[in-house]
Q: What sequence folds into this?
């Protein structure tokens, strides 16, 4: 009986390992943001994400040393180990680039999980372009989304409003391969809403997958702070 | 028949207005222009990377351009949107302030419940934030009426 239990336990354990091959992500980031009116922003720091904990920890180093912890419903801002602010968020952590990449769902940006419906697929100039329609109940609020892939990797996303105008373009470039894990080291965004226009570029370097150190950041206990 | 054709024609036009031609050109942008937009920020980024031991204020002395940087905090690598508490003020103090002023002036006593309603809607019906706002409203109302009573009685 003991042997059977042991075999069962090993099988269960082995199955769990294969189910989630990549479970931790960390990298140094740099976010540069510019608005058409000249407003500029620069942020540098480190990001930690554990697939099981489902909390993104942003350790910002510049311009302000502070930590942001994103959970599914709230973002906590900490300075000198104390929570100084918390705010509700509407985008779950599961739709962050880190969760999608670790879960190998970055190719369609998790739109299928969000209830979007695949409408049309077209091939053009080396890109495979898919048109996704929002869930029926949200079609009067959200527009269609165009997702393009190149060599089986997410290339770009174009967000449209309900009138069909482009409101945002995202590009995912310079993919890095780490033991079978693929991640874009540069994400470029352009937003066009009415007269407002902004550009943003995020670069990632020193990416570590399945990090066995820095446990305090992957499971950041901000409640005790 | 004419009416039917007109309806079909109108429908066709509307459909075309709201549709977009799917092609690879949609996934292109002026890279040269884009790089140019970030020239200054790239320069500042290099200064920060090369001088990790310096604080923000010390970097301003090295290059005053740092002073022009925005401190807007919502832009982070994972692109998550916010639903903030009203004006980024704590829900309790938000309702407390309105209720206190409202109940003191008596005619504005409805300000408290309205401020609770604002918290309820802006926090997307979050129970915890609404509860805080209700407590703020009750405390502010009691204190406002108390102050009013004290002023009318003793002054």
A:
């Amino acid at each position: 009986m003991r042997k059977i239990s042991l075999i069962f336990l090993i099988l269960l354990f082995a199955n769990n390992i294969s189910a989630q091959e990549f479970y931790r992500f960390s990298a140094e980031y740099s976010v540069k943001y510019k608005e058409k009116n000249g407003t500029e922003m620069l942020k540098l720091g480190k990001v930690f994400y554990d697939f099981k904990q489902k909390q993104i920890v942003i350790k910002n180093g510049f311009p302000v040393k502070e930590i942001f912890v994103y959970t599914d419903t709230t973002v906590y801002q900490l300075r000198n180990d104390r929570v100084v602010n918390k705010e509700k968020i509407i985008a779950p952590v599961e739709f962050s680039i880190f969760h999608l990449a670790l879960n190998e769902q970055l190719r369609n940006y998790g739109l299928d999980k969000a209830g979007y419906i695949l409408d049309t697929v077209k091939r053009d100039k080396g890109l495979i372009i898919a048109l996704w329609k929002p869930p029926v109940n949200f079609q009067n609020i959200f527009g269609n989304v165009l997702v393009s892939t190149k060599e089986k990797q997410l290339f770009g996303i174009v967000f449209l409003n309900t009138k069909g105008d482009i409101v945002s373009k995202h590009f995912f470039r310079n993919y890095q391969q780490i033991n079978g894990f693929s991640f874009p080291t540069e994400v470029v965004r352009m937003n066009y809403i009415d007269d407002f226009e902004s550009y943003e570029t995020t670069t990632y370097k020193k990416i570590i997958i399945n990090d066995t150190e820095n446990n305090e950041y992957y499971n950041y206990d901000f409640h005790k702070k | 028949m004419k009416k039917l054709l007109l309806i079909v024609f109108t429908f066709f036009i509307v459909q075309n207005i709201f549709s977009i031609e799917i092609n690879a050109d949609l996934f292109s942008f002026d890279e040269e222009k884009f790089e140019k937009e970030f020239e200054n920020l790239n320069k500042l980024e290099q200064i920060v990377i090369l001088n990790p031991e310096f604080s923000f204020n010390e970097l301003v002395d090295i290059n005053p351009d740092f002073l022009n940087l925005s401190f807007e905090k919502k832009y982070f690598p994972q692109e998550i949107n916010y639903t903030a508490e009203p004006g980024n003020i704590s829900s309790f103090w938000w309702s407390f302030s309105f209720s206190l002023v409202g109940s003191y002036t008596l005619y504005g006593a409805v300000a408290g419940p309205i401020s609770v309603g604002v918290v309820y809607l802006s926090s997307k019906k979050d129970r915890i934030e609404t509860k805080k706002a209700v407590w703020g409203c009750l405390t502010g109302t009691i204190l406002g009426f108390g102050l009013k009573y004290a002023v009318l009685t003793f002054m």
